[in-house]
Amino acid sequence: MRAVVVEEFGVLPRVQQVGEPVVGAGGVVVKVEATGLCRSDWHGWQGHDSDIVLPHVPGHELAGTIAAVGEGVRGWAVGDRVTTPFICACGVCEQCVEGNHQVCPHQLQPGFNYWGSFAEYVALPFAEVNLVRLPEGLDFDTAAGLGCRFATSFRAIHQVGRVEAGENVVVFGCGGVGLSAVMIAAALGARVIAVDTNPAALELARSYGAADVVHAGPEAVREILELTGGGARVTMDALGSNEIVQDALRALRPRGRHLQVGLLPAGVQLDVSRLIGQELEWLGSHGMAAHSYPEMLDLVASGNLRPQELITRTIGLDEVPGALDAMTAGTPAGVTVIRPQGITA
Ligand SMILES: NC(=O)c1ccc[n+]([C@@H]2O[C@H](COP(=O)([O-])OP(=O)(O)OC[C@H]3O[C@@H](n4cnc5c(N)ncnc54)[C@H](O)[C@@H]3O)[C@@H](O)[C@H]2O)c1
Ligand SMILES: [Zn+2]
Ligand SMILES: [Zn+2]
């Protein structure tokens, strides 16, 4: 099969012929129809993830059809249309039994712990725990985004951030995670302020429900304090940047909640005195468990959430190396979806 292969961190990957994945007991192999280009793929390619062993195939935000079913898997058959949380949880450990699959210590992530979905086929472990059946009307391109960024933002805003109608929510970084967060927070009735360096991303944020947009820069915090009348209830770092973290904490009102979704491989220094004195909450958020998908899928089916509108570009595997490379300098506005079976398939 064809796959995007990283042979050295930071060096342009190449599309190569590699062996197809073998189905494992309890798992499935999925024919990948669509897979999103997430900044976490870029982090992995840059060598920011210690789980990755070279040579490596990235890709973790995927949808497709089951091509092979492993021993012992009940309830799933060849041809079923599926997606999966990128965090494939074991389903039996203490965290999983308590429902917290997104922090399962035995989790396996395609595209990080083993070869991922920038390929014609991908293997998925613990199928009964993680597979999510796609409703009939949901196309593969849209469903791919539910494997990582849209679902991650759903959990961050709704479950971890506990965002309620009428609250001010400031989303810093309006790429795949951030635009999803804008749409989800607006659908919950929050008053959303979107922050980005890219005017085209801010334009999209407005169309997905942001009440105000702010250009990132030295004036951003002052503008947010004005727009919110003294500070936001919720901020979210949807890029992963020290500058954003500092701005976000300054933009919060006392007892505000900060959601950290963007990865910070170099770490960050927090003003802990301010966290204490203002009783600010620092909240990490990681993916979302498969059992939480029905609530999100219902909101998609009813049209309250419209992840299909986030997609602005569809590319084939051959364009992936160039697209990953371009992410070092910036991100084109909106979400890019890759079709490993070919762009006309
Ligand atoms: N916690 C999780 O479970 C999880 C899941 C998915 C992604 N992530 C991480 O979330 C982050 C975002 O991923 P993505 O795919 O949405 O990224 P992206 O590249 O699509 O979007 C980043 C956005 O940030 C904007 N930006 C750049 N500099 C900025 C600045 N100084 N201020 C404000 N905005 C700025 C860009 O213009 C772009 O719109 C990454 O770190 C990714 O690894 C985490
Ligand atoms: Zn991702
Ligand atoms: Zn587990």
TrEMBL record:
Residues 10-338 form the Enoyl reductase (ER) domain. The keyword Metal-binding applies. Its cofactor is Zn(2+). It comes from the Bacteria. SUPFAM superfamilies: GroES-like (SSF50129), NAD(P)-binding Rossmann-fold domains (SSF51735). Keywords: Metal-binding, Oxidoreductase, Zinc. InterPro entries: ADH-like_C, ADH-like_N, ADH_Zn_CS, ER, GroES-like_sf, NAD(P)-bd_dom_sf, Zn_alcohol_dh. It holds the Pfam family ADH_zinc_N. PANTHER family: ALCOHOL DEHYDROGENASE-RELATED (PTHR43401:SF5), L-THREONINE 3-DEHYDROGENASE (PTHR43401). Belongs to the zinc-containing alcohol dehydrogenase family. This is Zinc-dependent alcohol dehydrogenase family protein. It comes from Kribbella sancticallisti.
